[in-house]
Design brief:
mainly alpha; 16 helices; Growth Hormone, Chain: A; 445 residues
Length: 445
């Protein structure tokens, strides 16, 4: 299911192996939403919510087990770090096309097929690992296949959420999905993956395959017609035309284009600042490995308050107010960290940042869903995701280079300045974002 928060597994991708070794001493419970809790948003959304909880738990398991598996096969830092790039690469290569294809297909059936395919891929990898015949190349191929599947599943998930709940309830639905992401992907999954890997390296891979299958079963229970209307169109030429149509529509809606552009710049700025987070924490803050592990969990802990905070803040300032505050908060946070405050100040700020990220992600996702006509939603969602991941990749490269040449705090100064420029430049455009007049109609491109 889709990741509904802005940075996915960020901000601590570069330190994920260290986090698994030091931060967790037990396995946190991962609650699966019960049928009784479905009633307010309907049974179809309940199935999606439960599927999201399971697949995010599986992703969290791989978040720990994947780096541990790579590290067990090679001692090369370049090969270990390359695994992150390999899994993100499909978003940069195929995001526009996967969104266009998802807009042409039945979203429910597409997600079921992708989850089954990913489950079979993980079973095959688990078999190679169990027999001792796995290689780095095989793991890379597996991660790339999973990444390709993710571009389709995530592009289709947002339109499926829109089809299952009323427009006025999208914010609440996205907040609940964000909560399951935090609990499964960031809190429960990684320690469980590390524990399972300690028993046998193939077990967490098989466990993720099980979560994919269960997720597919739950999504298949959604009894909604999510197939696109209209006559069938030529595949290759039609997909290219669909991509161009989505881009034309986005260019004609400047406020939404500005929002996605702001997200791109903010992710560049974020990873420019946080690319060397582990070095900043240990060298400048003076933390040991265990203390750094605790610091890593602070944002995830803050994210648990996200759904409640979103409801309270949304009623008072609206989506535009949330986004405006987000820009200034992040810019100020980067500049604060550039001054190297005491570790407890950094930790407390990261807890608030976790809540802020969940509120921001819910608001941005809901605005995109409410603003984009349904026939174009998968394409716009894929562009949004590409801005997230592409910005993070570019920022990581910039941040590492800046830290090497000018010191560990320079990235925070640069990132803070970039975000504050975005805050000023997007002030009016964010307020101009409005829901589409006809969310069920065809595009006006």
């Amino acid at each position: 299911m889709t990741r509904l928060v802005r940075r996915g597994i960020m901000p601590l991708v570069l330190a994920r192996d260290l986090r698994v070794r030091t931060a967790y001493t037990g396995v946190l419970p991962m609650p699966i939403p019960s049928p009784r809790s479905w009633s307010s948003l309907g049974r179809p959304f309940g199935y999606l919510w439960s599927a999201s909880a399971l697949t995010n738990l599986g992703d969290g398991i791989l978040l720990a087990a994947g780096p541990l598996l790579i590290a067990s096969l090679t001692s090369s830092p370049a090969l270990v770090g390359g695994a992150v790039l390999i899994q993100q690469l499909p978003w940069l290569l195929f995001a526009l096309f996967s969104g266009a294809i998802a807009d042409r297909l039945d979203k429910r059936r597409l997600i079921v097929a992708i989850n089954v395919s990913r489950a079979l891929t993980m079973v095959l990898l688990a078999g190679f690992v169990a027999t001792g015949s796995a290689t780095v190349l095989l793991v890379y191929v597996t991660l790339f296949i999973l990444g390709v599947g993710e571009t389709f599943a995530d592009s289709a998930s947002s339109p499926l959420v829109v089809a299952t709940v009323p427009a006025e309830e999208l914010g609440r639905a996205n907040a609940r999905l964000g909560l399951t992401f935090t609990m499964g992907n960031q809190l429960a999954g990684p320690p469980l993956g590390a524990v399972l890997f300690a028993f046998a390296s193939a077990i967490p891979l098989a466990a993720q395959a099980v979560t994919f299958i269960l997720g597919a079963v739950l999504v298949s229970r959604v009894r909604l017609d999510t197939a696109p209307g209209g006559p069938a169109r030529p595949l290759v030429r039609g997909v290219m035309a669909d991509v161009r149509e989505g881009l034309r529509w986005l260019r004609s809606h400047r406020p939404l284009l500005t929002l996605i552009g702001a997200i791109l710049v903010m992710n560049v700025a974020f990873m420019t600042a946080f690319a060397t987070w582990v070095l900043y924490s240990t060298r400048l803050l003076g933390l040991n490995e265990f203390q750094f592990g605790l610091l890593v969990t602070c944002s995830a802990i803050g994210g648990l308050a996200g759904p409640l905070a979103y409801g309270l803040v949304k009623r008072r300032v609206g989506h535009a107010g949330i986004l405006r505050f987000a820009f200034f908060f992040e810019g100020g946070m980067f500049l604060l960290f550039a001054t190297v405050p005491p570790a407890w100040v950094v930790a407390a700020t990261m807890v608030v940042f976790g809540t802020h990220t969940m509120v921001w992600g819910t608001a941005a996702t809901t605005l995109i869903q409410q603003t984009t006509p349904k026939p174009l939603l998968a394409r716009v969602t894929s562009i949004y995701a590409m801005a997230n991941i592409g910005g993070s990749a570019v920022g990581a490269a910039i941040g590492a280079t800046i830290a090497e040449l000018f010191g560990l705090t320079t990235g925070f100064w640069v990132g803070g300045a970039l975000v504050l420029i975005v805050a000023v430049a997007s002030w009016r455009s964010v307020r101009a974002i409005r829901p589409a007049d006809d969310r069920t109609g065809q595009s006006d491109a």
